[in-house]
Amino acid sequence: MDPRAAALYKTYYQAKLAFVQKKGSKDELTKEKNAFNALKEDLFKKAMDKGAVFANVGPQMWFTGKVQLGEKKPAPEKTSAAKALGKNPEVWEFRLDLNTVTGKMLQVLGFDEPDADKIVEERTKRGFFVGDPLKVMGDLIGQDKLSAVQGKTQLAVYTPKVAEEPAKEAAVLWPEDIEKIDLAGK
Predict the structure, then answer these.
(1) Do 62 and 158 form a contact (C-beta atoms < 8 A)?
(2) Same domain, yes or no, for 24 and 88?
(3) Does the first or last residue of the chain, that is N or C, have fewer Cβ atoms within 10 Å of its Cβ?
């Protein structure tokens, strides 16, 4: 509901950790705990009074493309499914949502680490993105950098269809598949 909640919880958690490690004071811990709990209670009241539970849930902003993974490999069962469906296990179609993608997922696609982090950090700051996912990424990292990744991956906007063929979709990399890939290629 509110991006401040994560920041306040992190500050509270760090104060608690510091206190347990005898590096912080009980007063600091109490102050951070009270700040977090006050916001949490305020948000709960707001959600119950106004039905705004999903106020900070962004729209789905799917994009798709193809990526050649090289040494980086998806889970063996994913590779087996692709081979069984006659797909090239070296080139993978993918589907990702810009409002849930991680920096690691973007790096697997070919974004450099600073640009991937910039996209995720900006989303965290805003709460979520709206609009065309490719335009948002281009505005954040620059159209030249996005075009370079697009040239390698054929990035395009993806509109989910209700009745996809399950067998075909089994050979597509989804967020949970990409998250499991080791960036070092091991």
Answers:
(1) yes
(2) no
(3) C
